[in-house]
Amino acid sequence: MCKNKTNRSLFHETKLANINVKNRLVRSATWENMTTADGHLTKDLYNIYEDLSKNEVGLIITGYGNIVKEEQPNPGMMGIYDDSFIDEYKKLTNMVHRYGSKIIMQLAYGGTKTKFNVGERIIYAPSEVPERSTNVLGKAMTKEEIDYIVNAFAEAGKRVKDAGFDGVEIHGAHTYLINQFLSPYYNKRTDSYGGSLENRMRFLIEIYYKMREKVGKDFPIFVKLTATEFFEGGLTFEETKLICKKLESIGIDGIEISGNIHGKAKSMVGQSFDGYELKEEGYFLEYAKIISNIVNIPIITVGGFKDFDNMEKIFNETNIAYFGLSRPLLAEPNLIKRWKAGDKKPAKCVRCSKCRTPEGNYCTIFNNKRRV
Ligand SMILES: Cc1cc2nc3c(=O)[nH]c(=O)nc-3n(C[C@H](O)[C@H](O)[C@H](O)COP(=O)(O)O)c2cc1C
User: Fold this and answer.
1) Whole-angstrom Cα distance, residue 57 to residue 24?
2) Which residues are CB-neighbours of 51 under 8 A, at least 6 positions away?
3) Fewest beta carbons less than 10 Å away: which of 176, 249, 293, 362?
4) Looking at the domain assignment, is residue 197 inside a domain?
5) Is residue 323 within a helix (H) or strand (E), and if so which, with residue range?
6) Which CATH number goes with the domain that contains 332?
7) How many CB atoms lie within 10 A of CB 100?
8) Ligand 1 pocket member 279 (CB < 6 A)
């Protein structure tokens, strides 16, 4: 591993799948809670994406977009559930491209990890297992419902392409529906979607193939995954490694390695799970490192990064290709421009996770004027 990798800069232009990106720094998906009630873009959102792109973010991943109208795990999330969204996203992608940044859209079906309008809508799950943090029980999906959601992901992927995005990310992490299918804790099915890991992966793989059919062979498709579920009986890192190998073999263009615990990861730093320790600077770094050594597609590591020099060191010493940042860019939207200009002080973000508010998600400590 790590051949000829000394003194590479995070600021050299590079290619992620077929996307020319100006640096290795990615704005990881961040739900802003600033759309209209039905998921349409607002002036605030255009402002946020303008601010990110004019401040040197190489690749922006949007907040999670809902793929069917009736399923919304949180308020204010971007919609992509019908064609009425295409024109407004074209305006967004054109704007981001004018500033030289690239942008991909994240697609999600939330499921039972929600407290939003529970009881007013049907919420799908692989099986009737209450979600551990919300205690919400979903409806175990029939084969017809699985096909419906697989198709909805694929149709949304096509809209993402039609709107001029540079790629799409399937949200397979954070205990949302796809993650629950992968998880032996949440997936108790006895049909071909449950039981063995091969069966538990089937839902995600069908989504990928159907989407690939709709977007063509050259449109980049990424997946965000949970490294391990961090509880007894959940998805293990050994299984995640096998999932990554499988995703590579079917044509996924890159994988973002996350966890389902980022809100509380700070308090878990130093603890070991599945043999690897959660790091202060890059919570899931140890897992991402291992995965970057066993697949030949780009790995994005995300969670807890604040220190530019440390990221550049990791970049030079490992096979990790990209670094995701969410909260640091809420605290300082100009962070990457500042680093590029030579001020390499770590991000101000104190990882407090107080950035979710009913009026929108913004840094309540360092950027509390909220608007850019
Ligand atoms: C306000 C907020 C909204 C988020 N929304 C999403 C999202 O829509 N999709 C997603 O995959 N992760 C989401 N995340 C998680 C981030 O992408 C990231 O994985 C996590 O915050 C850890 O990175 P950080 O330490 O750089 O913040 C969100 C995080 C925050 C703080």
Assistant:
1) 9
2) 333, 334, 372
3) 249
4) yes
5) strand 322-325
6) 3.20.20.70
7) 15
8) no
- Inside any domain, residue 354: no
pLDDT digits (tens, 9 = 90+) for 62-90: 999 999 999 999 999 999 999 999 999 99
Catalytic residue among 109, 176, 186, 283: 176
Has residue 1 been placed in a domain?
no
* Residue 276 annotated in active site: no
Distances from the Cα of 260 to the Cαs of 24, 213, 220, 246, 368, in angstroms? 23, 30, 24, 21, 26
Whole-angstrom distance, CA of residue 289 vs CA of residue 81: 35
Number of H helices, E strands in the chain: 12, 14
Q: How many domains does the chain have?
A: 1
User: Is any ligand 1 atom within 6 A of the Cβ of residue 329?
Assistant: no
Q: Which domain holds residue 292?
A: 14-340
* DSSP SS3 for 152: helix
pTM for the model stands at 0.97
User: Does residue 127 lie in a domain region?
Assistant: yes
Which atom number of ligand 1 is nearest to the Cα of residue 361?
1
Q: Is the separation of the CB atoms in 241 and 291 below 8 Å?
A: yes
Query: Which pLDDT band, with edges at 50, 70 and 90, does 104 fall under?
Result: very high
Residue whose entry in the numeric block shows the structure tokens 């996350």: 258
User: Which DSSP category does 79 fall into?
Assistant: B
- Please say if the pLDDT value at position 31 is more than 80: yes
141 phi/psi in degrees, rounded to 5: -75, 140
- When pLDDT is cut at 50, 70 and 90, the band that residue 332 belongs to is very high
Which ligand 1 atom is at minimum distance from the Cα of 355?
1
